[in-house]
Amino acid sequence: MLELLVDTDTGSDDAVALLLAALNEDTELTAVTTVAGNVPVPLATRNALLTLELAGRGQVPVYQGCERPIVRPLHTATAVHGDDGMGDLGLPEPAGSARPGHAIDVLLDRARSRPGELTLVTLGPLTNLAAAVLRDRALLTRFRHVYCMIGAPDAVGNMSATAEFNAWADPEAAHVVAEAAAPELVTWIGWDVSRRDAVMTPDDQHALRELDTPLAKFTQRINRKVAEWAATVTGLDGYDLPDPVAMAGVLRPDLVIETEPAHVRVALGDEARGQTAPDRRLDAPAANVTLIRRVDGKGFKELLFDTLAKRVED
Ligand code: BDR
Ligand code: CA
User: Which residues form the Inosine/uridine-preferring nucleoside hydrolase domain (predicted)?
Assistant: First the structure.
């Protein structure tokens, strides 16, 4: 049984990743921590609670975390995901609320109390994890593995010309994690993978509508702003789901078809802020992370559709 902790800036694709984790039979989602990113952290918490309740997993504890990046001001992605991060549908408020306690303490306490047992998946800026690493420099070794959806290894960005949002939003945090990482402990998956291997095409969206389950409708509706953005701003015929693709690689390692150990330094200067291009020189320093470069897009969509076909009892 995979025991997961998920750290998320819950916007619309994070929510779909939470559904995958919450409804996977071979996985126990032990807790969710939230961080500012796509939306301010109270909204990320609300969206995580709402999503878990919709999945019939309202008992999973949610802990709120950092309100802003370590150094920089908060810059949200509401232009992409909607003002509420969930497509501006006027969703109801969740029944539950965040548990007492800060996400940083939860990451520290849970990893220390179950060394080598828990798998951490981060879906937002690395602020919570970096702050925890600054308090315990060996923290990453206390997890079974840490997977981060972050970066643009080919330097094709979605936030700047060369940087991906989670790395760009809190580059100092990403830097702290990268410096403490080792390739057997930490895997990064960039947003490029979802765009290359797993775009939700118009046919996929049609199939999602045909599924006609509450979870399929929820997924299609909360991603409507992303779909608009992808079509109008980036010219993509469909929308991409970076966080669900990352989650699929964790839940189903057989879907990962190419990895690369790499030395990644996170650019901190203003010009290249958040760039995460690996050092591929012949004499590059030793790898600090494993990068996932390709996933089985067909297998990802099968997992997604199987999950969204589920009908959750009230
Ligand atoms: C990442 O940024 C956010 O907008 C998404 O939720 C995802 O985590 C993709 O660059
Ligand atoms: Ca995210």
Answer: 5-302
What are the pocket residues of ligand 1 if the criterion is a CB atom closer than 6 Å to any ligand atom?
Answer: 11, 13-14, 38, 77, 80, 123-124, 149, 158, 164-166, 191, 242-243
Q: Which residues pair with 161 in a beta bridge?
A: none
The tokens describing 99, both together, are 């548990």
Residue 38 CA, closest ligand 1 atom number: 4
Q: Are 44 and 9 in contact (CB under 8 A)?
A: yes
Asked if ipTM goes beyond 0.90, one says yes
Ligand 1 atom closest to the CA of 158, numbered from 1: 10
As to burial, measured by CB atoms within 10 angstroms (0-12 exposed, 13-18 middle, 19+ buried), residue 101 is: middle
Q: Is the pTM of this model over 0.80?
A: yes
Encoding tokens for residue 2? 């995979």
Q: Output the CA 283–ligand 2 centroid distance in Å.
A: 34
Looking at the predicted structure, is the pLDDT value of residue 314 above 70? no
Domains, the chain, ordered by start: 2-309 (3.90.245.10)
Spatial separation of the C-alpha atoms in residues 46 and 35, rounded to whole Å: 11
d(CA 152, CA 131): 23
